[in-house]
């Protein structure tokens, strides 16, 4: 078994969290798991010095399928001050699209059109402009209810150095399944999700402003990831902004415990892409919610 279990979530920095939830939950039929407000973060980070914007939503979790989520950030609130200032999205974005899987694309597309969601060439677009590819993918989870989409199928990103990024991700255990002059497709984890790398025609910006904040990978063990990947030249760090202070490659490393209870470290690629590397210890907010809400 590899280190990577699955593509756990993609995080999006949306211009309006309300419009994003109206779209993802209202139109696409996903369930909102929980929303954290600015105040929740201040409390956890012991930032008691301000109450500005405390009541505003900061982060919402949306279930696509069991252990496959969207993490939707309020892109109008900027930590650590949590001022209101809309993210000025990168002009040369990293994200091309992410993909949602369904049993029957024809049926799903017909239903989307009935719900007033335009479909163009197999893609839909969220309120902030993120493109979503509709792909056929048999569900790997037993479902109790009928779902328009059954899985988070993958993501496509533009990269500056196609060969370099492909090698980097293969050193994390992703397997190359297809390659052309301008694209490389890799399979992620045990459920055949994909990460597609597309050669950018001009430099892409991998700063904080991308619509795609980061990609989260669920691993079998943070300690094993730090050790195994470290020996392949892929270094983990405690936070994305600490990429220049990589964790020592030793056995038994413990990551951060985040607000949702996940144990987390980060990998930042040579060109700046952020990968959240996480484990659920058994009682995360997500796991508790999933127990109470069968798929
Ligand atoms: Fe995340």
How is this fold's topology laid out?
Elements: E1 4-14, H1 17-27, E2 31-37, H2 38-44, E3 57-65, E4 68-74, E5 77-78, E6 83-84, E7 95-102, H3 105-114, E8 123-125, E9 131-136, E10 151-159, H4 162-170, E11 175-179, E12 183-188, E13 193-199, E14 212-219, H5 222-231, E15 236-237, E16 256-257, E17 263-268, E18 274-279, H6 285-292
Parallel strand pairs: 1-4, 7-9, 10-13, 14-18
Antiparallel strand pairs: 1-14, 2-3, 3-4, 5-6, 7-10, 8-9, 11-12, 12-13, 15-17, 16-17, 17-18
Bound molecules: fe (ii) ion.
Fe (ii) ion (FE2) binds at residues 9, 11, 71, 214, 216, 276.
Annotation keywords:
single chain, 295 residues, nine-stranded mixed β-sheet, seven-stranded mixed β-sheet, 36% strand, globular, binds fe (ii) ion
Note the main sheet.
Answer: 9 strands, mixed
Strand content: 35-45%
CATH fold node name of the domain at 8-210:
2,3-Dihydroxybiphenyl 1,2-Dioxygenase, domain 1
User: What's the end-to-end separation, in Å?
Assistant: 26 Å
Please identify the structural class as seen in this structure: alpha+beta
DSSP summary: helix tally: 6
> How many DSSP E strands?
18
What radius of gyration results from the CA coordinates?
Answer: 18 Å
CATH architecture of the domain at 8-210: Roll
- Give the fraction of residues assigned to helices: 10-25%
List each distinct ligand once: fe (ii) ion
């Amino acid at each position: 078994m590899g280190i990577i279990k699955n593509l756990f979530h993609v995080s999006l920095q949306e211009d309006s969290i309300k419009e994003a939830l109206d779209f993802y939950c209202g139109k696409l039929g996903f369930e909102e798991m929980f929303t954290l407000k600015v105040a929740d973060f201040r409390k956890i980070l012991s930032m008691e010095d301000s109450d500005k914007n405390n009541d505003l939503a900061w982060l919402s979790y949306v279930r696509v399928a069991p252990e496959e989520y969207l993490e939707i950030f309020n892109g109008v609130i900027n930590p650590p001050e949590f001022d209101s200032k809309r993210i000025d999205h990168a002009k040369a974005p990293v994200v091309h699209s992410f993909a949602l899987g369904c049993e029957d694309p024809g049926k799903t597309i017909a239903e989307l059109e009935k719900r007033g969601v335009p479909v163009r060439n197999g893609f839909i677009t969220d309120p902030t402009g993120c493109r979503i590819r509709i792909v056929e993918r048999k569900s790997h989870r037993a479902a109790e209810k009928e779902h328009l989409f059954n899985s988070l199928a993958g993501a496509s990103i533009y990269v500056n150095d196609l060969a370099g990024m492909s090698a980097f991700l293969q050193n994390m255990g992703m397997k190359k399944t297809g390659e052309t002059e301008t694209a490389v497709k890799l399979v992620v984890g045990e459920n055949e999700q994909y990460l597609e790398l597309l050669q950018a025609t001009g430099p892409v910006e991998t700063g904080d402003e991308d619509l795609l904040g980061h990609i989260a990978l669920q691993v079998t063990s943070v300690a094993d990831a730090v050790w195994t990947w470290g020996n392949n030249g892929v270094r983990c760090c405690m936070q994305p902004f600490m990429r220049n202070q990589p964790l020592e490659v030793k056995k038994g490393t413990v990551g951060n415990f985040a607000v949702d209870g996940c144990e987390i470290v980060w990998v930042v690629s040579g060109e700046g892409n952020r990968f959240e590397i996480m484990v659920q210890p058994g009682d995360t907010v997500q796991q508790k919610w999933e127990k109470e809400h069968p798929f």
